[in-house]
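#onboarding

Welcome to the new folks! Below is a worked example of what a typical request in this channel looks like: someone posts a single protein sequence, and someone else replies with the predicted structure as tokens. Don't worry about understanding the tokens yet, we'll cover that in week two.

Example request:
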Amino acid sequence: MASDEIVVDPGGIAGLAAPGASARESRQAIDVCAPDRKDAEWLVKPLLLAAALFSGLVVTVLIGFVFWRAWPLWHAQGITFLTTSGWDQQLEDAWNSGGRTFGVLPLLVGTLLTTLGAVLVALIIGLGCAVFLAELAPGWLRRPFETIVQLMAGIPSVVFGLVGLAVVVPYIADHLVPANSGDVVTEIPLDGSCLLAAIIVLSFMILPFFVTVAVDALRSVPRSYMDGGLALGMTRWRAITRIQIPSATPGLVAGIVLAASRAIGEAIAMSMVAGALAFIPTMQHGPLYMLLEPVRTMASAIVDTGADAADVPAISAALFGLASVLLTFSLLLSLSARWAFGYFSRRMNIVSSRRV
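Example response:
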């Protein structure tokens, strides 16, 4: 008798289906026995839709509010807001005498230099760290290392800035700044708070974000790729550099973009170690002096200006103008990440199909 019955137990309720019953009849029997499950599934879809719509609405309202508050500045100045200099003096003029013209070219250059420098350093160090954790580290060392990397991602920005102010800046001032720097660079003092200090601090801030994504990307490469390379006579290091890293390129690109997004909006640490001076470093005195010159980023300028100055309409519009530029950079990074991920994914699929 037991062999003539099929017992179905959805959600703890037993149901019977006659032998030879069709698949449709079996599904109907299961649905009748599990009304609670159907009700739950009916509720999940609108709840998820509402959550997605709410999240998108919040982001849209945020972007719209920032650009709405920045519109008076863009309407009055246009692109000259990004192509002219004089932010520090113009900010003081707006506070004292009601000036309404601003130029943020030094802030834009400072943001790009610190971000690109930090991403380059994090890419070089982080890729080696990711390869070590994914392929070379023994188990007893891999787990504590990964824990340390994850903990670094949770350290507050002000802690990085404080350590940089107490360690990195004094070291640069004592060991890297030449004794005759005042005779060479007469426009500004070189006291250790500089572009180099900002790059060093920012590199360690974004390093755990890149390493975490890079490790997952390297581990997602099918093991058969590596085994095939080793079976063909490749050394382990050659298989890593010629097979695993190229195959993980989409994930590595995503990690780079995530790190750049984190770096471009950093404010607290940059205001503490970068010099807080709207100055464009130049190669006039050589690459060393360029790295030792102070900079100011757009995010740190927003923080340094303070809430009291934001009560002045012209300054408030200028700060929202900076925020709109930062948002634009973030959107461009997101779009470029999607394009790069799709491009490299399609390219790797083509290569894989050709190999097969």
